[in-house]
Amino acid sequence: MRVEPGMDTIGRSRNGFLRELRTEDYEAIRPHLKTSEFSAGLSLIKLGQPVTHVYFPLTVVFSLVVDLEAGQMIEAAMVGHDSVLGAFSALGKPIALTHAMVLLPGSASVIEVCRLRDIAAQSLGLRDALIHHGQALFVQAQQSAGCNASHSVEARLARWLLRIRDLCGSDIFNLTQEMTAHMIGARRNSVSFIANLFQRNNLIRYSRGQVEILNLPALENIACECYDAVKAQFERLQLPARAVIPGAEFLRPEPP
Question: Could you count the other beta carbons within 10 Å of the beta carbon of residue 114?
């Protein structure tokens, strides 16, 4: 991870969480934001370990994963430019409840957990926004669990590629078949077979670890309903931070 010195100057235009904040909340945290670069495969947060920073992705895509036996893992949720990684750490005990790694390299605005917690203690709007995004990731994790248990590899792969496209903002990105198989809970040979099928039907182009989406509508038709469900959940985050979030009251900390 490489950190650039100085205040964040581009985060609000690129990150959905920062963009939805009230001006006074953004201005309170802006002096403490730094722009950082992250390389693919970096293990950022480890289960059970203290969380020291909160991340607002600009171009990087993070993956929240569950580690299994024999070094295997499966993805629970993805975090990109529409959200924040480490939201609940700024509201409660900053101990990681999951493992987070860098799926696609890129940049993020970063703030120390202790700084964000102090600012959130003074702002109900900021606390609500953190709760809202944390809940959205929880819903995504639930949706992923159901998807991996119920839907075909073909539908899961299409859903996953579409979600990555949304988060990185490009039709072209780098992914290995081995990593893809881990993330969607499938065998590598199954992913290879489906990827080749997609390629023969001109849905994607895949070569040397680079994926290019060629036919977006066709992939959307193949993807399971989980893609639309997760997308709709994050579209709801465009509500103003001052709006009341149903069901969030029990998580709201008491005013200092």
Answer: 13
DSSP string, 98-151: SEEEEEE-EEEEEEEHHHHHHHHTT-HHHHHHHHHHHHHHHHHHHHHHHHHHHS
Same-domain status, 136 and 178: no
Q: How far apart are CA 163 and CA 115, in angstroms?
A: 31
> What is the C-alpha separation between 73 and 53, in angstroms, rounded?
23
pLDDT digits (tens, 9 = 90+) for 8-51: 555 577 899 999 899 999 999 999 999 999 999 999 988 889 99
Is pLDDT at 57 greater than 80 in this prediction? yes
Task: With respect to residue 182, please indicate whether it lies within any of the assigned structural domains.
Answer: yes
Question: Sign of the CA dihedral 79, 105, 89, 77?
Answer: positive
**Which has the closest alpha carbon to 224: 161, 151, 137?**
151
* Residue corresponding to tokens 């040979």: 189
**Residue with token string 């590598």:** 188
CATH number, domain with residue 163: 1.10.10.10
Which residue in 170, 168, 191, 193 sits closest to 180, CA to CA? 191
Contact (CB, 8 A) for 186 and 174: no
Q: Roughly how many angstroms between the first and final C-alpha of the chain, as a whole number?
A: 34
Note whether 73 and 21 are same-domain residues: yes
Q: What is the pTM of this model?
A: 0.85
d(CA 191, CA 184): 9
Count of residues making up the chain: 256
Closest CA to 219 of 145, 180, 166, 144: 166
Please, are residues 200 and 210 in contact by the beta-carbon 8 Å criterion?
Answer: no
